[in-house]
Design goal:
The chain is mainly alpha-helical. It contains eleven helices and no strands.
């Protein structure tokens, strides 16, 4: 409630919304589902699902570059059952479990030149964690170099060819998304919540024990 109110960060930082900590906007629609089945098992199942669907674009990417089906499946099994992956799922819930799906999707879609879908993958990845625009810029830089970017130093006239224009547009969008998310985190959301009305909502919804901590909230 209260736009993803979280007691831990409120006590630690005086924030009234998790969105002031991370730009995890996919949590908003998920909150309606969690409201129906609000159990730890639901969270672990969601995290497992998020990790599992990451194998879909990874499979498509592997097949696109020509790796045989049997080798691809073997690598996906190693990916899913690797120690870092399993250990990350055991003890708590992480929204970044969705990141591999969007990351691999973006990589695959650029490989097959489906740029509109690339933009969607980048957008939803950025709505999962504010670090994703930087991951997206890394992917774009890879494809810029992979598709002859360094050779363009010799033939700069090709810098504005259609092949690279799409990468430039995506890079500009990634930077714009990050600026908007940081503005929301640092200015817009605190302005909406960290005021007397926001504190009144805390009292209204039965959290009076935390109210002494609100003295430092502007």
């Amino acid at each position: 409630g209260l736009l993803l109110y979280e007691a831990g960060d409120f006590q630690g930082y005086g924030t009234l919304s998790y969105l002031e900590i991370h730009a995890t906007y996919i949590e908003l629609p998920y909150a309606f589902l969690y409201n129906l089945v609000g159990t730890p098992i639901m969270l672990f199942a969601t995290e497992g699902f998020a990790v599992a669907i990451g194998t879909i674009p990874l499979y498509l990417l592997s097949r696109h570059i020509g790796l045989k089906r049997n080798y691809t499946i073997a690598l996906l099994v190693l990916y899913l059952f690797s120690f870092p992956m399993i250990s990350s799922l055991l003890y708590d819930f992480h929204w970044m479990s969705f990141i591999p799906f969007f990351f691999f999707s973006m990589f695959y879609l650029i490989s097959v030149k489906r740029y509109f879908l690339v933009g969607l993958a980048m957008l939803f990845g950025s709505l999962t964690l504010e670090v994703f625009p930087f991951l997206a810029l890394g992917i774009l830089l890879y494809f810029f170099v992979e598709r002859g970017g360094l050779k363009l130093l010799i033939r700069p006239q090709y810098l504005f060819s259609g092949e690279y224009i799409n990468l430039y547009i995506l890079a500009i969008i990634a930077i714009a998304i990050f600026i908007v998310e940081r503005t929301m985190q640092l200015t817009v959301i605190p302005g909406l919540l960290n005021n007397q009305a926001g504190i009144a909502n805390l009292v209204k919804y039965g959290l009076p024990s935390l109210i002494p901590s609100t003295n430092n909230i502007g």
